[in-house]
Amino acid sequence: MSDIIQLLPDHVANQIAAGEVVQRPASIVKELLENAVDARADKIQLIVRDAGKNLIQVVDNGIGMSETDARLAFERHATSKIRSTEDIFKIATKGFRGEALASIAAVAQVELKTKQKETPVGTNIYIEGGQFQFQEPVQTVEGSNFSVKNLFYNVPARRKFLKNDNVEFRHIIDEFQRVALAHENIEFELFHNDEPIFKLRKGGQMQRIVDVFGRKLQPLLIPIKEDLGWVDLHGYVAKPEGAKKVRGEQFFFVNGRYFKSAYLSKAVQEAFEGLLQPGYIPSFFLYLQLDPEKIDVNIHPQKTEVKFEDEALIFALMRSTIKRSLGIYNVAPSLDFEKDPKMEAFFSPTPSKSNISSPIPSAINVDRDFNPFSVEKTTAEERINLAELYQATEAAPSKINLFEDDDLDEDLFRLPNGYWLLNKDGQTYMLDLGRMHRVLMSSHQENLPTKKAGQSLLFSLEYHLNEIEKNKYKSIKKYLPDFGFEMTLAQDNVLRIETVPEALKESQVIKFLEKIFEVLEYRTEEDFYKYFEYQWIKLKTKSKFDFIYKTEVEQLVKDFIDLGFPQYTVNGKKCWLEVPFDDFKNKF
């Protein structure tokens, strides 16, 4: 039998390797921005067209590259940051795999113009589909100018799997923000289709956060600071009123590198225990500085995960420091952490795992937010399946035949926490009237007009958009007149609202728009319409505390019985539960 194993040609091998590095346009943005930061630039421009599908250009005023280095930078496994295996564990810069530029060049048309300060002319390199085309001298400014055009032009199967421009551009903004938030001493600019999106000046961390996310965030930020010598923690958390149900303003950085950590996110969440409504996520911008040898940044292909040598210590430090700051700023009861024995170990200059144990929970845990209707923690509301939003909820036929008597007056009792009890035929049910009302509203949604009449406001409302919200507004503004809105985007990203839907109270307008802007993407026009209607129903739905009169509750329960007495909302939350009174007999 003849031999069948062959070595792949370099350009094919590079295309395969590119799959790890270049997943979408945002992957290229991340690599090029980090290279510009490593080149000691203090001004970086990012220019994209068609959400990066046809152009990604990064221009920096860094140290530039020599003629030889410019050519070698596109070779696989070429890097300026590693000379030995030990260097991998002491990386203080960003990219270091030595494959990024080779991978990018394998699936795009790439041009580089670069010049060092002391050289009279720079060098210009052009590579297409991994094939070197030419290198020649060029007159150019000091620094580097990378242009990546026609991404995946030679791999059409991969190009067709890219999302629409709104989605891909959102990913680009995410990567841009992560780099910009980590380097407030660098001036950043972002242009999309020749339109300026961000112009970030140099400044402090607070200024950079506000410039990225809008000035309405500034009064909500609480400073976090603790320097123990071996680790420095600083940054900001937002007050509870800045928490949201969707992720987006949660940022960890270590030594200037963005990373994700479900473990440390839990530390932040625990610090806010008792201060947030169930399902809400605090906003935070937290920066760690410690010896590079105590972290491993190479455990994830995109380098977004980090392994810490003393992870349990950092968890406890983060949780306690945030709790203390919340107390100092009168957001939570202040605690005396100086006398906490569990904190004493932090003040050792070189902590070791041998004398440190994981934080020990208190003997008694009190859940201040106990909700008998809560099901397993879920983010279903954030990841709404728009195609299933209005499907009929599953009924509970075995319960329906219990309610044959139309008179419910003597069967309903209100509890102090807003829930109601329904007694019927020897069984008791605890009711969440707010969720029941939402189910009823959803069941009648087909009778709601898609288009809504508008009412003019006597005085226009103003809503200050950050750049992310501005981008979202532009993607949906053509739909808004159908729902009764008339608004214009004025200077300084001020959205001036002149007309709102007739049924929308003026006090509800801003909150309603914020909910619309929270969604990361709208795949189709139909998706947006459905989500709008979903938020509209939520806005018009009463909470369990809004039902005061018993006659109103009786009518709601009767309507709910007519619907089939379903137990769950469309996103899986319980509308009622059966109270097991028989189990209480053993308590006496």
Can you put this structure into words, describing what you see?
- With 588 residues, this protein is of the alpha+beta class.
- It has 3 domains: 10-200, Histidine kinase-like ATPase, C-terminal domain (Heat Shock Protein 90, 2-Layer Sandwich); 205-355, Ribosomal Protein S5, domain 2, CATH 3.30.230.10; 378-588, 2-Layer Sandwich (Ribosomal Protein S8, Chain: A, domain 1).
- It has helices at residues 10-21, 25-38, 67-72, 100-106, 156-159, 165-182, 205-213, 262-271, 311-328, 397-400, 433-443, 467-476, 509-518, 525-540, 550-563, 581-584, and strands at 43-49, 55-60, 109-115, 122-128, 131-138, 143-149, 187-192, 195-200, 221-227, 231-238, 250-254, 257-259, 284-290, 295-296, 307-308, 412-414, 420-424, 427-431, 454-464, 486-489, 494-501, 576-579.
- Strands 5-4-3-6-2-1-7-8 form an 8-stranded mixed β-sheet.
- A hairpin with a 2-residue loop joins strand 4 (122-128) and strand 5 (131-138).
- Helix 2 (25-38) packs parallel to helix 6, helix 8 runs parallel beside helix 9 and helix 11 (433-443) crosses helix 15 (550-563).
- The longest helix has 18 residues, at 165-182.
- The protein is elongated.
- Keywords: DNA damage, DNA repair.
- This is DNA mismatch repair protein MutL.
- One of its GO terms (biological process) is mismatch repair.
